[in-house]
Amino acid sequence: MGLKNLLIGRKWLQPVYERLFRISLRGMNYGMAAFVESSGELNLIRSLPSILQRDSLVIFDVGSNDGDYASHLVNEIGSHHKLHFFEPSPEAFSALTKRLKSVDVDKVRLNNFGLSSEAKIAPLYFDQKGTGWASIHKISHPHLGVNLDQSEEIQLKTLDKYCQENGVEEIDFLKMDVEGHEKEVLLGAKEMIEAGKIKCIQFEFGIAHLISKVFLREFFDILRDYNIYRVLQDGIYKITYNERYEVFMNSNYFALKKRI
Questions:
Q1: For the chain, what percent of residues have pLDDT higher than 90?
Q2: Is 28 left (phi over 0), alpha (psi -120 to 50) or beta?
Q3: Separation in Å, CA 104 to CA 79, 80, 83, 101
């Protein structure tokens, strides 16, 4: 029996492989999406003007919550860009508004509604008002102490319709963090995506997608005209789809139009 056969699939080595597996996942930045400063999001924000080679950007932040990411965005690249924020929760929207009260109102658009694949009124589930876990999907993660057992009605619109109504011809950067509803946001942006009017997109993929029953492959299918990267702490790493990447630990991905 060869050395490989002695090591592969052996019960006595499983604790070692489990440990190596966890180390590998952390090394690949899985499970780090919640932390703007340490996940790599901050570096990506700083890199946007050079990636897109433009001094003035149109940026959509979908799922702004209480404004943590929004404030980093404004602080790092300035408020002279055209910034559109979307947050359907009244409590989170109030916190977002307070956080951005000093920003030039001519450059910032605050929207107290969410985006989806169609315009409708829908329940937003939450465990406590203003939480970052709030989702269109009724999520329960007992091992994390999260149970979205309360709800309120919110308004949803489509990105395509919003752009038509507000004269937005192009989006340089679309950022989404909507707890499992990212695919629906993209479906509501079908016209803009197919017309090549969205240059790059950041989306979160993780534990909420177990509930919404969405796989990473679906993002690759929708964004077939984009190169897709995993966001790392010191940059981005290009990947091509493989089923081993169906890892439901919250991570950020960056899609860049192949021909800008």
A1: 74
A2: alpha
A3: 7, 8, 10, 8
The helix/strand/coil state of 139 is coil
Residues 6+ apart with CB under 8 A from 54: 172
**pLDDT confidence of residue 1:** 54
Percent of the chain with pLDDT over 70: 97
Beta bridge partner(s), residue 228: 239, 255
Instruction: For the chain, report the end-to-end CA distance as a whole number of angstroms.
Output: 54
User: Model's pTM, two decimal places?
Assistant: 0.93
Per DSSP, what are the bridge partners of residue 257? Answer: 226
Q: Would you tell me how many other CB atoms lie within 10 Å of the CB of residue 102?
A: 9
Buried b (16+ CB within 10 A) or exposed e, 168-187: beebbbbbbbbbbbbbbbbb
Report the largest interatomic distance among the alpha carbons of the chain, rounded to a whole angstrom.
72
pLDDT digits (tens, 9 = 90+) for 106-138: 778 999 999 999 999 999 988 877 777 788 888
DSSP 30-86: TT-TT-HHHHSHHHHHHHHHHHHT-SS-EEEEES-TTSHHHHHHHHHH-TTSEEEEE
Token pair, residue 196, equals: 């090549």
Q: Are strands 226-232 and 251-257 parallel, antiparallel or unpaired?
A: antiparallel
Distance CA 130, CA 133 (A): 9
pLDDT band at 81, cuts 50/70/90?
confident
Residue 7 has pLDDT above 90, yes or no: no
Helix (H, G, I), strand (E, B) or coil at 199: strand
